[in-house]
Amino acid sequence: MSNQINEVPAQTEGGATILEITQQPDAWREIAQRDHTASARLLDRMLERPDLRVILTGAGSSAFGGEVVAAALRRHLNRRVEAIATTSIVANPLDHLERRTPTLLVSFARSGNSPESVAATQLADQLVDDVAHLVLSCDSSGELARHHTGRDDSAVVLMPERTNDTGFAMTSSLTSMMLTCLRLLGGTTEATAEVLASAAERLCERRDAIRTLARAGHHRIVYLGSGPLEGLARESALKLLELTSGDVDTYFDSPLGFRHGPKSVLDDDTLAVVYVSTDPYTRRYDVDIIAELRRQLGADRVVVIATAAGVDTPWTLPDLEGLADSEVALAYLVFAQHLALFTALERGKTPDNPFPAGEVNRVVKGVTIYPMSDR
Q: Which residues pair with 53 in a beta bridge?
């Protein structure tokens, strides 16, 4: 694959996407200060059930956001919390929904107009005896929000209007829903949200350094992270794939899993990005893979994003040390979004519309939802 990099006029760079990336700190502050008393009533009622199961669902980036925050919710609620994509629920509902298990279905949806969004909640209504819905969305006029507004078994929580991203890829919409979920169910405080917002601002201020990474023109980028940060790695890979319209090969894995075959993807033009855990135990495995990758690729082709001052990297966010990985992932993601955007621009892409011929759509089209007989 060619590494030819195209020049893009400065005045056209970034479009709506760069604005939606850089507005995230202020959006997070707004979210942290919101009163969620209305939705809390439904959530408190469901959380009285010791056998409650919480499912975090969505498609694409919305699904990966659930993968990131699930661990924090599991620890805070001491309940069974799982991230299951709407695409999996719709295609195989009996594999994922349990008739006799009280369930809170938390739906992440930027617009709520993807075919699987409402279908997943309808299947839960059909196949689970005791189910409630928490809908996190950016669009009050979206089908999912309209379907659940006014229902006694549903709470619809809308993000700030500006986070209903107009760009192709989900950026501020995704992190806003993630933070809202962490605030409602994960124990994340307003003070923590402020620390995250400040860290994200510092990353935005270093956009020139991120642009320099993009200018290297690597044809393949691998993202690695453990636990919640593996979900972040997955979202990072998708963001790059989307904004470059598939022009850059991407891969994601955990540091331990990567050695079991997937490491074969590395070549002499691969950039590796490692997200380091805040957990001291988990961090040991991250440090090991960093050392191994630096030996194989060279230090200049291994980017390490960390909170711990003891990790050798210029990309350290020490103020986040001690937070949960599900929380620091929001700030780490701002780095990944910038890298994807600048890589796309360096390759002459238009990030707001990377697929002008419509091969891939901002809201999924062409999906037929088939009825399922009750069982």
A: 80, 103
Tokens standing for 152? 């006694």
Please state, in angstroms and rounded to a whole number, the distance separating the CA atoms of residues 112 and 142: 5
- Cα 374 from Cα 126, distance rounded (Å): 7
Q: How far apart are CA 106 and CA 56, in angstroms?
A: 5
Candidates 304, 349, 311; CA nearest to 213 is 304
* pLDDT tens-digit map of 128-152: 999 999 999 999 999 999 999 999 9
Residues 307-331: tens digit of each pLDDT = 987 899 999 999 999 999 999 999 9
- The conformation of residue 349, written as its DSSP 8-state character, comes to -
Sign of the dihedral through C-alpha 217, 224, 186, 86: positive
DSSP for 11-77 reads GGSSHHHHHHHHTHHHHHHHHHT---HHHHHHHHHHHT-TT-EEEEE-STHHHHHHHHHHHHHHHHH
User: SS3 for 250?
Assistant: strand
